[in-house]
## 1
Amino acid sequence: QVQLVESGGGLVQAGGSLRLSCAASGRTFSSYVLGWFRQAPGKEREFVAAISRRGINTYYADSVKGRFTISRDNAKNTVYLQMNSVKPEDTAVYYCAADQRVGSYNTQQYAYWGQGTQVTVSS
């Protein structure tokens, strides 16, 4: 029903910036709550950010608040994660996720997930 494809990952120096994109299929994109998650080697997948259907409300993990910004363009069926002042601890595979309803924005139970894009932050 929904296919999500992340892009924009790569190697970036600590203190630099990177913007991730997630393109979605379908004509009902605006009905989905969207989230970004990440998973570092040997660690559990963790919540990063989420955004409401019309982009009015946003939510962030404490570890990224003030540095990352989530946004969406419903006309382009795309959600973004702007990553500023990146740190080596931000190194992970980043996933976007979508669901028509969630119990909480940081839930691990979003219905649809992308394949992930690697972000590596060097010192």
## 2
Amino acid sequence: QVQPVESGGGLVQAGGSLRLSCSASGSIFSLYNMGWYRQAPGKQRELVAVITAGGDTNYADSVKGRFAISRDNAQNTVYLQMNSLEPEDTAVYSCNAYSKLLKLDSWGQGTQVTVSS
């Protein structure tokens, strides 16, 4: 079984930075596609960033140029570096491991990010 576990959330002032981490068990972590999603109160869950098993990345328009997703396969970990944070970034951020080939679709519990104005 794969159980992603997020960490690194917290309270930060607008304009500040935060780095989220997501670790997932498994000897074939390098084959997982990994994504970060977020959900704010009263809003739908939205895609923030993804990184494929091959290392390709994609970002939501709202975070392009501010956020960066990366992975360290040796540590079974994916990161989300968040810079120039805005109050609108406040949400619960969740990590997802996905693979059609492996029939994998697993979510972490989420970590709270709060950006003060």
## 3
Amino acid sequence: QVQLVESGGGLVQAGGSLRLSCTASGRTFSSYVMGWFRQPPGKEREFVAAISWSAGRTYYADSVKGRFTISRDTAKNTVYLQMNSLNPEDTAVYYCGGRTDSGSAYSVYSVYHYNYWGQGIQVTVSS
């Protein structure tokens, strides 16, 4: 049983910043990869960023590269998403996902790579 809990969302003006956190817990939790996806209203869930747990290798969607930074605190089982230079196109429900073992047939860019998800948190960027 793994639980992911997101925090840090909210309303921000264009050009502002937010920092999202996602903390994982569970009796047998271990993480291979953790990542962030987002789902704007009326659209499909899309990849934002991911990080490998062991080496800290990062992956970013082109739309956020240079603006967002993903990081992790392995001791706290927590992944962060620092979001800078936000614009209204970043408005979405943001989901934290985790992969608890290796061997997935899908890449970290795919929603199918992740076997656990948080409930999602709203990020709204106003102009």
## 4
Amino acid sequence: QVQLVESGGGLVQPGGSLRLSCTAAGRIFSIYNMGWYRQAPGKQRELVASITTGNSTNYLDSVRGRFTISGSNAKNMVYLQMNSLKPEDTAVYYCAAKYGLGFSRPDYWGQGTQVTVSS
């Protein structure tokens, strides 16, 4: 059993920044690809950003240039730095881990952390 725990969500004004953190209960970041998903009410869950074990990154078009995913194998953590936040970024953000190629159907999910962008 792999447990992922997110933190760092909260309420922020438009244009503000937040950094989300994901910690794994176990050393998995060296062998699993990691990513951040988000789901807003009434919308499909979407992959926001991903990072491979080789540190290759991909981003949702709407967040590219504003969000940055990074990882620390030594600290066993993955981060999502979110800048220039917009109200449409409001969602529950989930950390996920996937063994193998790509990032379809993650093997493990965190519990989610709420990000609310509002004045």
